[in-house]
Amino acid sequence: MKAVPYSTTAPLSVPVWRQPAQTVWQVGVLIAAWWLADAAASALHLPFSGGVVGLFVLVALLLAGWVRPAAIELGANWLLANMLLFFIPLVVSVVQFTQLLKSQGLMLFVNIGLGFASVMLVTAFTVEWVCRYERKLRLQKLLRQRTTRAQA
């Protein structure tokens, strides 16, 4: 049996013909949320980026039930599928600033590596935590349904 790590289909509530428009809308919402979190991080002079603030706010909204996962699933899946495209400007910058890399290259790569590792670890732990929480909620719902059926 072949395991598929992520759903490649849209949520059942979205008709196939609406998926492109829904995806564009959700990507726009995620970009707006990032922009607002970045503005908040700058205004509050926080020592970390708006992306981190946005991640925590989005996780809090998902856990509180104010945002359903289906409301951002298509957009998030599209962003994850096309993530490599977001690194193209980085490659162009490396080519343009070779002198800077010669003089400060090691320190830059250490900083970038630490930042990258930090983001990956925090993201992995957050995703794992949310998945465990969702599994716990599904189990509780299943147990409630079984109890209700047994009583009926």
Question: Which short descriptors sum up this protein?
Answer:
about 150 residues, mainly alpha, about 75% helix, disordered N terminus
Describe this structure in words.
It contains five helices and no strands. The protein is mainly α. The longest helix is centred in the C-terminal third of the chain and has 54 residues, at 98-151.
Query: Radius of gyration, Cα only, in angstroms?
Result: 20 Å
Indicate the structural class. Answer: mainly alpha
Mean pLDDT across every amino acid position: 83
Order of helices and strands: HHHHH
Number of strands: 0
The N- to C-terminal Cα distance equals: 37 Å
Sheet of most strands: none
User: Helicity, in percent?
Assistant: over 70%
Number of helices: 5
Instruction: State the oligomer.
Output: single chain
What is this structure's SSE topology?
Layout: H1 19-43, H2 50-64, H3 73-81, H4 88-96, H5 98-151
Structure at a glance:
The chain is mainly alpha-helical.
